[in-house]
Amino acid sequence: MSGIAAAFRRHPELMVAAILVVTVVTIGLVNPVFWQPSNLFSLLRASVITGILGLAVLLVMLSGGIDVSFPAFAIAAMYLTVKAMIAWGFDSILPAFAMATGIGLLLGLVNAVFVHYLRMIPLIVTLGTGTAVRGFILGIVGTSQINIDQMPQRLIEFGRGQLFSVTQADGSQTGLSAMVLVYALIALLVHLLLRYTMVGRGIYALGGGEEAARRVGFNIRQTTFLVYGLAGAIAGFAGLLHGAMIWTANPRDMVGLELDVIAAVVLGGASIFGGRGSVIGTILGGLTLIVITNSLIILGIDTTWQRVVVGLIVITATAATAWRDRKRIA
Amino acid sequence: MTAIAQRLRRVDTNLLQLALLTVLIFAAMAALNPERFLRPYVFESITFVAPELGLLAIAMMVAMLTGGIDLSVIGIANLSCILAGLFFHAVGAPRGPELANLAWPLVAAGIGLALCTGLLAGAINGLLITRLRVTPILATIGTGQVYTGICLVLTGGPAVVGFPKLWGLIGNGTAFGIAVPLIVFLVVAALVWFMLARTAFGINLALIGTNARAAAFAGLRTGRTVFLSYVLTGGLASIAGILLSGRTNAAKSDYGVSYLLQAVLIAVLAGTNPAGGRASVPGIVLALAALMLLSSGLQIMRFSNFLVDLIWGGFLLLSIALAAWRNRTR
């Protein structure tokens, strides 16, 4: 028994994985419809955007900060890029994603300037930048939704791509979105950065304690700019990917999404005090959150309960992490 | 003694700067719209709209005083007045004259119910933060979701419309030619000011916010004091909810969402240190006046609400930059 407890403590991801397995098995027992390939594929597809944004939040939380501006950045990057694609008549995928990522990067660097040079609490900085960017997009760029008939064709084709498809019991075809592969690739890159590069270890060090990290020789300014810049870039990329996946560019989209994403990241075992958390945990946390919130209907629970469920997940997960880290704080 | 004198001087310069800002904004808005801004109607409408935001800002300030934050204030405000509204609909006929002319003891019971909801919601936040040691950001993000979620579950989405006349008086009425909500705000602000500046509770809060560990070693009952501060925050949020629903004659799960950033902005602009230890009720009143003048001036100039959001967000960032600059030169 103590062996299991020790394993859980050494690998917090195991705990999240166990929660995910229990959740999936329970839901599957209540309603076997859950196991249909179409449902499983749609859950995986739904976890792509939350998951990629979760990686951005993970980076910030590892460094000891928090970010609530990323949905606004994602939407800004997506809307500006799609507008530019239509206005300038280009529809190649690579430049489009480069542009969205670049916009996100620039906005992220603004966060970094405020957090590093002006020494302001990240929550308040990102609350300000998020609101300002959202206000800029809706107040100056435009409020109208770009629908499928105006969306760049190649973007839609890209978002429509499937890895493979299977025939279900009732004869209908269902496929797994290729965007899952994009998610996996980004997750792998962030994982490699965090685990095997010096700047990645610097993010953990900064979250563990700024002064300590400085004295061991980590460049705090460089690390802070990397964290917020990369988080912004990932958010910008995810924003355009979201537009490609739903075939519309809606500047009012993703309002309130920050709460779901933060819930996923803390469920994945990341600590808001920084220095603790992993890519694998975040992926599992994101999957668990998506599985729970998207399975309310097949569980026969009214969807108005979704907010309550997400809130309870945040509270339970953070209380559990606080309990895990209790010795560190005391 | 010199420390106290220095502190007083610092607070005073901050208030002076705020007063200057208010005058500047007033002059700018009057110069930009000479005919339409300097009308009694403009200022009268501010006295009805500003109080609810002011109460939320004071609530935010109380949470920030100990280095925390309360992101659930909007959820608490909405839940309080939705519960009161549903209570009124249960005891009076919905929308009928019986509801409008509900007797004062029942209206008083409704006010009691709303206040108790706020205090209880605040107590839950306080327990999570002090007993379970969840960080205020995540605890109140989680409970905010739960409170908003309960609003959705109770109402199913649409607004609870129709409140008794007496209830509406709190948000709409005038007494001695002054808006009742303004009177409520000034009385509550004076009470909170007294509590923070002249009682042991308030001084303890500031000490805990300055250095929690030192306060604990000095023998202060930090847990209990912080807990009570979140109860107070919850109570203030529910009063804001009463004013909001009294003014609009309706209560809804997503009312006042944009107030969250504005409450944080006013608290920060008022000289509250989000890291804890410093707060000023007179600062809140001045910052509130400045920002209300700004937003009604912009509305007169037909700025869209999104542009006003952009300006609020920009203002928050600007005030952070100013605070950083002020601290550097000192």
UniProtKB/TrEMBL annotation, chain A:
Name of the protein in question: Ribose ABC transport system, permease protein RbsC
Membrane-crossing residue ranges in chain numbering: 12-34, 40-61, 68-90, 96-114, 121-141, 175-194, 225-248, 254-273, 280-299, 305-323
Keyword flag Membrane: yes
Topology of the protein relative to the lipid bilayer: Multi-pass membrane protein
Primary residence: membrane
InterPro entries registered for this protein in UniProt: ABC_transp_permease
GO cellular component, one term: plasma membrane
Gene Ontology molecular-function annotations: transmembrane transporter activity
Species this chain originates from: uncultured Craurococcus sp
Record-linked Pfam families: BPD_transp_2
Keyword field: Cell inner membrane, Cell membrane, Membrane, Transmembrane, Transmembrane helix, Transport
Subcellular location per the Swiss-Prot or TrEMBL entry: Cell membrane
